[in-house]
Amino acid sequence: MKRVYLVGFMGSGKSAIGKRLGTLLNLPFYDMDTEISNQTGMTIPQIFETYGEEGFREMETEFLRNFQEGYCIIATGGGVAMREENRKIMRRTGLVFFLNSTFRDIWRRISTDINRPIVQRSTRHELERLYQKRKPLYLQCAHFKVETANRTLNEITQYIASQIIRLKNG
Ligand SMILES: Nc1ncnc2c1ncn2[C@@H]1O[C@H](COP(=O)(O)OP(=O)(O)OP(=O)(O)O)[C@@H](O)[C@H]1O
Ligand SMILES: O=C(O)C1=C[C@@H](O)[C@@H](O)[C@H](O)C1
Ligand SMILES: [Mg+2]
């Protein structure tokens, strides 16, 4: 069995669902943002300030290149699926689930959060355009598209777990 990667826009629930999935399946859970934060000893906004967005993107790719753990759950950062190399690594080393959420839900969840530098520097309109631009790349990367609208975190977690178990036993 391979790794499980969760991809999708900021606020689609990758971190919240990844954590629950790890507990439910009794697998180690890694959140790329947290891992990179711990490695650098800086918050995500501090990394953006110090090294720029491009510096942060390099750290994401380095993380994927060097990560050693086998069967585990990984919540990616919202921009990870934008790089071709990242998409290739994820598809080669794991199963990729795209959490599809409406922009309306996303905006409600993230608009007031100060820990996401891209939200801080963007208007609602700019963020919606970024969401539209990124969507085809999440789809390109994913083995599975998971609809999250009108579903609780636990329902989504259960659904993904059932897909993983089905593949494992199939
Ligand atoms: N389906 C859902 N139902 C209820 N709350 C949700 C749902 N999905 C996400 N949330 C909530 O929205 C917030 C943002 O979710 P989360 O941090 O998991 O997003 P993310 O995809 O990891 O974002 P990022 O790419 O910025 O790391 C959290 O408080 C989470 O609990
Ligand atoms: O969508 C993005 O580009 C980001 C999402 C977050 O997970 C963090 O990785 C960071 O805030 C950038
Ligand atoms: Mg997250």
Description:
By secondary structure, this protein is α/β, with parallel strands linked by helices. It has one domain (3-165): P-loop containing nucleotide triphosphate hydrolases (Rossmann fold, 3-Layer(aba) Sandwich). The chain has 8 helices and 5 strands. It has helices at 14-25, 32-40, 44-66, 84-93, 103-110, 117-120, 124-141, 153-169; strands at 3-7, 29-31, 73-75, 94-100, 144-147. The N and C termini lie close together (12 Å). 32% of the residues are buried. The model has no long low-confidence stretch (mean pLDDT 97). Residues 10, 33, 44, 77-79, 116-118 line the site of (3R,4S,5R)-3,4,5-trihydroxycyclohex-1-ENE-1-carboxylic acid.
